[in-house]
Amino acid sequence: MDLVKIVLRVILAVSLALAAFAAGPDVVGTWVGTAVLPDQTLDEVTLVLEKSETGLKGKVGDTLGVLSQDTPLTEASFDGKELRVVFPTAEGVIITIVMKPDGEKFVGMWTDEEGESGAVELAKKK
After folding, report:
1. Does residue 65 form part of some domain?
2. What is the DSSP string of 16-43?
3. Which residues lie below 8 Å from residue 66, measured CB to CB, with a gap of 6+?
4. Cβ atoms of residues 30 and 48 within 8 Å
5. What is the pTM of this model?
6. Contact 68/12 with Cβ under 8 angstroms?
7. What is the CATH number of the domain that holds 43?
8. For a designed S-S bond to 110, which of 84, 92, 97, 104 qualifies (C-beta 3.0 to 4.6 A apart)?
């Protein structure tokens, strides 16, 4: 193998590694944590994200019954800097969660169409 081919392969490998690093953490998987409700109650939340043909898909659930069991996400995206998911509550209120990576977890806020909001923190289940 000549030197030019070796150099090109090394450049390609480094470029791919840098692109993967720049894209942020791998969001596919199960994320667990808490959401702070308006009355300051902590609700345990599980978010499952999967790759789809168009990006991400998934489902979300909680322990207090605010959501239906395994509520499908209506939107899910991650641009390397911000994770955004949208889904309805059991009563049909639309919730949007926007989080940013913070070490090995995501932290951010949930908001609903009625103007309520609270903190969210999720860590990837190992």
Report:
1. yes
2. HHHHHHHT-S---EEEEEEEE-TTS-EE
3. 37, 43, 89, 90
4. yes
5. 0.79
6. no
7. 2.40.128.120
8. 97
Number of structural domains found in the chain: 1
Helix H or strand E encompassing 5: helix 3-22
Q: What's CA 35's distance to the chain center, in Å?
A: 14
pLDDT digits 0-9 by tens, 5-56: 454 454 444 333 333 333 446 999 999 999 999 999 999 999 999 999 989 9
d(CA 37, CA 24): 28
* Domain assignment of residue 20, yes or no: no
Helix count and strand count (H, E) for the chain: 1, 9
Indicate whether 31 belongs to any domain: yes
Both tokens of 46, joined, read: 């599980």
Query: Distance between CA 59 and CA 20 in Å, rounded?
Result: 25
Answer yes or no: is 15 within a domain.
Answer: no
pLDDT tens for 51-102 read: 999 899 999 999 999 998 899 999 999 999 999 999 999 999 999 999 999 9
